[in-house]
Design brief:
Layout: E1 6-11, H1 22-30, E2 37-40, H2 52-64, E3 68-73, H3 79-92, E4 96-100, H4 117-127, E5 133-137, H5 148-160, E6 165-170, H6 174-186, E7 193-197, H7 203-213, H8 219-228, H9 232-252, E8 257-261, H10 266-281
Parallel strand pairs: 1-2, 1-8, 2-3, 3-4, 4-5, 5-6, 6-7, 7-8
Helix pairs in contact: 1-10, 2-3, 4-5, 8-9, 9-10
The structure holds flavin-adenine dinucleotide.
Flavin-adenine dinucleotide binds at residues 41-42, 44, 71, 73, 98, 100-103, 116-118, 136, 142, 144-145, 151, 154, 157-158, 167, 169, 196.
Length: 284
């Protein structure tokens, strides 16, 4: 049987305070990489720009010829909002929607319609029976779940509601992902699971992101930051090498795919891709 893992990238819309053109710089910088798809994140909360994801997805598909997946966070949306988003995604020609609950914002009241991502998955499935629906998963468990097993039981509900593909949260210890994958398979979760890899690009970013995602910084990542934290250029190179090695080991373990969080940094993404490309393009 042949094995060909998927390779996908994630970009985010520029902040409202940044010029919209910065996303073109990111996408131009990614030209020629030919990933299986690029996913575009969706802002959560009442003040986020609800058109940005569809606009960028449309550009990626029409101008760069790459399949796109639109993220959608629904905690602060009602049925009409979701219908509107799905119409925008249809027009943008997306190949799938990553259905998310979104993080809790303490200062805002939830709309109370989509309490969990699985509610959004069921709704999208009822409205778009043929649309691929992706879901998020957490190798080190979602921070709100009491145990990894509880989180996996909830994940099974989400998959049963109609998720056809999973993408994982970032992690730095591959054993965490492999353990999670074993438990997910034991729980009867049989859809593909892409492993989320976020390169270390600078010390503050990795501290902020691991805190935000409740992911652990592994010993090698801590050592890298300790050694090169005050030399951002070398840390970035070390981060690319570390991510490439992480991907190499994951592919050797037969993962379904790798989802690279680009952080809108095409230089880092290209350098990782140049290391790992043969693992994805040579069919064995
Ligand atoms: P859920 O699947 O709803 O899970 C949230 C919590 O509820 C978990 O603890 C789970 O165990 C529990 N739970 C789930 N279902 C049930 C149930 N039926 N009963 C009881 N408990 C339940 N955030 C953004 O704002 N924008 C993005 O674009 C974005 N993209 C992401 C992409 C990926 C690949 C990942 C991994 C995360 C992304 N996030 C994004 C972050 C995400 O929104 C947060 O992690 C959020 O807190 C949870 O979203 P979810 O869809 O996983 O929620």
């Amino acid at each position: 049987m042949t094995y060909k893992p998927k390779f996908s990238l994630e970009v985010f819309p520029p902040k409202r305070t940044s010029p919209i053109g910065t996303i073109y710089d990111t996408l131009d910088g990614l030209r020629g990489l030919d990933p299986d798809f690029i996913s575009v994140t969706y802002g959560t909360g009442k003040s986020s720009d609800r058109t940005a994801t569809a606009r960028i997805a449309n550009t990626i598909r029409s101008e760069y010829g790459i399949k796109t997946v639109a993220h959608l966070t629904a905690r602060y949306l009602d049925y009409d909002d979701v219908d509107e988003a799905l119409d925008m995604f249809d027009k943008a020609g997306v190949s799938g929607v990553l259905a998310l609950r979104g993080d809790v914002i303490e200062s805002q009241n939830a709309a109370g319609v989509f309490n969990h991502a699985s509610d959004l998955v069921s709704y999208i499935r009822s409205k778009r029976p043929d649309l691929p629906i992706l879901g998020a998963c957490y190798p080190e468990k979602h921070p709100e779940a009491a145990t990894l097993q509880e989180d996996i039981d909830n994940l099974k509900r989400k998959v049963d509601a109609g998720v056809t593909y999973l993408i994982s949260q970032l992690f730095y210890n591959n054993d965490d992902f492999l353990h999670f994958r074993d438990l997910a398979r034991k729980a009867g979760i049989n859809v593909p699971i892409e492993a989320g890899v976020m390169p270390v690009v600078n010390a503050n970013q990795v501290k902020r992101m691991t805190k935000m995602c409740s992911s652990k910084m592994s010993e090698p990542v801590l050592a890298m930051i300790e050694r090169w934290g005050s030399n951002p250029e070398v840390l970035q190179d070390a981060g690319s090498i570390f991510a490439s090695q992480q991907i190499n080991d994951l592919v050797a373990e037969g993962v379904d795919g790798i989802h690279l969080y680009t952080m809108n940094r095409p230089g880092v993404t290209r350098s990782i891709w140049s290391n790992v490309k043969p693992l994805f393009t040579k069919i064995v």
